[in-house]
Design goal:
3 helices, 4-stranded antiparallel β-sheet, 96 residues, Alpha-Beta Plaits, 4 strands, alpha+beta, disordered N terminus
Amino acid sequence: MQPIDFSEAKRDGKGFQFPGEFEITAVGNASANLPSHVPQLLERAGLHVLHESVRHRHSGAGNFVSVTVSFRCDYREQYDAAHRILRESPDIRYTL
C-alpha cells in the first residue's frame, strides 16, 4: 500500500487546511439538551465556537437529536480533540 501524499490535497484545495473553520455534528439522546451541551464541551476544550452556526434536528421518533456546530481551530490535533471530547460524553452516540 502506498502512503498518502497529503501535500497534493493542499495544492488542489481538497482536504483539511489549518487554520480554518470546521463543522462537527454530534448525535445523541434528545433529552440531554445537546444544542447547549455540545458548544459548551467544545469551548471547554479550548475551541472557538461560532455560536450563530449551532443548529439541531430531532429524529423522526424524537428520541435522538443531531447538533451541528462550526468552530475554528489552528491545528489538526484540535480538530481531532473536538471529536474525542464529544465522543467521551455519555449522551453522545457518535460524531461526524
